[in-house]
Design brief:
408 residues; alpha/beta; Arc Repressor Mutant, subunit A; Nucleotidyltransferase, domain 5; 5-stranded mixed sheet; 13 helices; 15 strands; 20% strand; disordered N terminus; binds zinc ion
């Protein structure tokens, strides 16, 4: 069997031009601009007509423009495509258990500015405070900019129809009408996604172009909790109404530690940041001593602190164990691990790989296991989630929505 050609995007039919393909095109144009239609066809292996159909739609919607560039070899100078980077901005919000980050991104997916605040207090009050902070920055520094949408990443189960966080064990949120609260304040379309799903999505936009032909990608997000996101055939697998809960709560030991979800021995209780820190503190904490963060454990490990190294090694074993189960079931081409723990990648990588390799029944031909392409992948993933949703219809951009808001 011959290998698929390198850098070959998945085939799409012109009758099946889904939004996801536009995302892939925009990723390619962003990375390779200026790029001609012919080069896109060559790169993707798609027919010229299919390429033109997608490109024309992108031009019509103002996401891409066409210009001439480079020396002409005689005849008509070739036309090249560029991203219309400043056509509008989007906001990305990543709600984390300890802190929440929001960012302003241009259409190139480049973060222009970001700010963090502690995630604290009752959810409704916290979201009002978050909206205050966003409004302050946007109205003072982006008063002339246009905004298209807001992408929000949140750890928990989300009702996609209503934009409600049904439950988030780690945030301890229940039935929080996230979309309604933010829409009332920000006056923009709000698109909400589970944090591990958002993280998986970040790889479609920020991942290596050489992986553009990867059909199945499993993302394991190691944060306070543990979540997984799955890309199948270039699309995010979101399951049914409540979205995909991921594999963080699959049972490893039914008699194990109590999990944030109320059950015992979930994968999360063995391999999350919290599990790692607790493991470290069980053997090192002095009574009354302060809590440490995962980043501190990693930096101690990088200085060869024995207990920190050991805590991370055990986490790596459990990550490898869980991933090996999923690899057998899902057979992905790429497994990506994201979160602060990847700062200790040189320590954890050989352990994770060894554990996965030792568990094969039939070894896959090729399995890439690598750290995430971006830091804080759930934040970066919220950017293409907002952008992608802007592609669905021609943009109705108002001027800065914050300026027209009536202050009461
Ligand atoms: Zn659980």
């Amino acid at each position: 069997m011959s290998e698929p050609p390198a850098n070959n995007f998945k085939m799409v039919d012109v009758h099946d031009v889904r939004d996801i393909n536009q995302t892939i095109f925009l990723h390619l144009i962003r990375e390779r601009q200026p790029i001609s239609r012919a080069d896109i066809a060559k790169f993707t292996g798609l027919r010229a007509g299919t390429v033109s159909a997608i490109v024309n739609r992108l031009i019509k919607n103002n996401f891409v423009y066409e210009g001439t560039e480079g020396p002409s070899s005689g005849g008509r100078p070739p036309k090249h495509l560029y991203i219309n980077a400043e056509s509008f901005y989007v906001l990305a919000i990543d709600i984390g258990v300890s802190d929440t980050v929001f960012a302003v991104s241009d259409f190139n997916g480049r973060i222009i500015q970001q700010k963090s605040l502690l995630t604290e207090g009752a959810p409704e009050q916290f979201l009002e405070k978050l909206a205050d902070e966003i409004e302050k920055i946007v109205s003072t520094q982006y008063s002339r900019a246009k905004f298209g949408a807001v992408g929000v990443s949140v750890p928990g189960l989300i009702d996609r129809e209503t934009g409600t966080v049904e439950t988030s064990p780690n945030l301890e949120w229940k039935n929080v009408p996230l979309r309604r609260i933010l829409m009332n304040r920000l006056h923009l379309p709000i698109y909400i996604e589970n944090d591990a799903n958002a993280a998986a999505f970040s790889e479609l936009w920020y991942g290596p172009l050489s992986e553009a032909n990867v059909r199945t990608l499993l993302f394991v997000l190691v944060v306070e909790g543990l979540g997984t996101g799955l890309i199948i055939n270039g699309e995010l697998h979101v399951g049914s109404r409540l979205g995909l809960g991921g594999f963080g709560h699959m049972s490893i030991d039914p008699n194990g530690e109590l999990c944030s979800c109320g059950r015992r021995g979930c994968w999360e209780t063995f391999a999350s940041e919290r599990a790692t820190v607790e493991r470290f503190q069980r053997v090192t904490a002095k009574p009354g001593g302060r809590a440490v963060s995962l980043n501190e454990v990693v930096s101690l490990a990088n200085k060869n602190d024995e207990m920190a190294v050991e805590s991370l090694k055990i986490t790596a074993e459990y990550l490898g164990e869980g991933i090996s189960n999923l690899v057998h079931g899902l057979y992905p081409e790429t497994v990506v691990i994201g979160g602060n723990i990847t700062a200790a990648w040189s320590l954890i990588e050989p352990i994770i790989k060894k554990r996965i390799h030792s568990r094969y029944i039939v070894a896959p031909e090729k399995l890439v296991i690598r750290p995430a392409s971006v830091q804080r992948p759930s934040l970066f993933g919220a950017i293409p989630i907002a952008l992608q949703n802007c592609f669905q219809k021609p943009l109705q951009l108002s001027k800065n929505p914050f300026k027209t808001r009536v202050k009461i």
